[in-house]
Amino acid sequence: MHTRPMGDLTSAPIPPLAEDDHVRGEGEGLIVYADLGCPHCAADWAEFRARPGRLAFRHFPLASKHPRAPILHAAAEAAGRQGAFFEMVDSLYAERGRVDDPHLWERVERLGLDLERFERDRRAEDVAARVRRDLESGLRGGVTGTPAVFDACTLLAVREREF
Amino acid sequence: MIAVGSPAPDFTLRDQDGEEVSLAGYKGSRVLLVFYPMDFSPVCSDQLSIYQEVKPQLTEKGVELVGISVDHSYAHKAFQEKLGIDTTLLADFEPKGEVSKAYGSYLDLGFSNRTLVLVDEEGKVAWTYESPNPGEFPGANVIFDALAEVPA
After folding, report:
1. Which chain B residues have a beta carbon less than 8 Å from that of A37?
2. Edge-to-edge strand order for the sheet containing A29-34?
3. Which residues from B are below 8 Å from A8, CB to CB?
4. Which residue in A144, A150, A160, A162 has the most chain B C-beta atoms within 10 A of its own C-beta, making it the best mutation to test that interface?
5. Over the stretch A27-78, which tens digit does the pLDDT of each residue have?
6. Touching check for A67 and chain B: CB below 8 Å?
7. What's the ipTM?
């Protein structure tokens, strides 16, 4: 999915939280760059959610590695427009085998969202741009794997790998 | 690592489809050689997936992306398909690691370290990066920082 024009990709600290960031909880906390198609993110998600304090989710879909990821991130963003961003993310991570379109529609129904609006929103240009904005800010911040966890704007941890 | 400013050693290697590819064939455009340890390893997978995300922007800047490892063309083809990437992958297979050695990227472990070499339009080494260890790779930002410092 390279439909969006991209900006400067030189190094830059990740941006501080903005009004349209996806944030749950209050006080000090984490900013997590995560991929909704990533099994490691799914495994760690419950732990992130259980932590006290604030949790901010930023999109980092790697389309080549996880072909459904861009669609899932757009779905979460579209659910967010109806106030159910984290409910969608929780559900996508909880049931990783159920990520086809009919499964997304089931979730929309279960969450009591407007399906027509969801379908329109998840295909909208500005939704794709919003996802891409996070991906780019992560790339500029040096994210090389997911989940990448930041405390304020400092990278705390990225998944360890040997080679 | 090979010194910046020196001529980039020419090579001819087979790509993922078994076709011969020469560095000389890229003369007139910039090439980013991405030496990496091995197909299918977790870090290499992440590295090439991340670079795939920014490939259109590299193309915009007139930079061709080329991966090189000691794996065979058949492994490259399977790796490319598994990752869903279209980056050219060259097989530094026989003599094993010869090109990697010419660029000072080979490790005694039997594979290449994770290094980047930017070759300019004239075939000279314009910039290099060597990872402190093969478990780490430079993010896409490092490449774009280099391109900002080394304008075409």
Report:
1. none
2. A22-24, A54-59, A29-34, A148-151, A154-158
3. 144
4. A144
5. 888 999 999 999 999 999 999 999 999 999 999 999 988 999 999 999 999 9
6. yes
7. 0.91
Mapped onto helix, strand or coil, the DSSP state of residue A116 is: helix
**Farthest-apart Cα atoms in chain A, separation:** 46
State whether residue B81 is helix, strand or coil.
helix
* Residue the block writes with tokens 């020469």: B22
B19/chain A closest Cα distance in angstroms: 23
8-state DSSP, B112: B
pLDDT tens-digit readout, B35-73: 999 999 989 999 999 999 999 999 999 999 999 999 999
pTM summary value: 0.91
CB-CB under 8 Å, A161 with B43 = yes
Q: Are A124 and A132 in contact (CB under 8 A)?
A: no
Residue B44 falls in the annotated catalytic set: yes
CA–centroid distance for B98 within its chain: 14
The owner of tokens 């994770």 is B114
List the single residue in B49, B137, B139 with the smallest CB-CB distance to A65: B49
